[in-house]
């Protein structure tokens, strides 16, 4: 299955992350850790990803470390100057982007389903017959 992804901004997860401190988040929240990992790669640093989510770089780094520990694989090669993906990290990054993009599509579909489909909204009215 081929998956093409262009953006990663899951509103529900972004709101969730913005409204909590990672220390109070459930340990191992898979979607939050995944989105933080993807944001770290896309931005190129823990600091920029942290700024996007109004978190500390340490909290983002710890979330990615929890993700690696849970998966039992190293996703990132870390140095003082740059981050680079391991082969496993490369695969996980692309698959995560696709999954998060699919989540965006599902949420957007639900929003579209809730809207009236035609140019005019149908409003049920009660009337009495004499």
Automatic annotation (TrEMBL):
<dbReference type="Pfam" id="PF00126">
    <property type="entry name" value="HTH_1"/>
</dbReference>
<dbReference type="InterPro" id="IPR058163">
    <property type="entry name" value="LysR-type_TF_proteobact-type"/>
</dbReference>
<keyword id="KW-0804">Transcription</keyword>
<feature type="domain" description="HTH lysR-type">
    <location>
        <begin position="34"/>
        <end position="86"/>
    </location>
</feature>
<comment type="similarity">
    <text>Belongs to the LysR transcriptional regulatory family.</text>
</comment>
<keyword id="KW-0805">Transcription regulation</keyword>
<protein>
    <submittedName>
        <fullName>Transcriptional regulator</fullName>
    </submittedName>
</protein>
<dbReference type="GO" id="GO:0043565">
    <property type="term" value="F:sequence-specific DNA binding"/>
</dbReference>
<dbReference type="InterPro" id="IPR000847">
    <property type="entry name" value="LysR_HTH_N"/>
</dbReference>
<dbReference type="InterPro" id="IPR036390">
    <property type="entry name" value="WH_DNA-bd_sf"/>
</dbReference>
<dbReference type="GO" id="GO:0006351">
    <property type="term" value="P:DNA-templated transcription"/>
</dbReference>
<dbReference type="InterPro" id="IPR036388">
    <property type="entry name" value="WH-like_DNA-bd_sf"/>
</dbReference>
<keyword id="KW-0238">DNA-binding</keyword>
<dbReference type="GO" id="GO:0003700">
    <property type="term" value="F:DNA-binding transcription factor activity"/>
</dbReference>
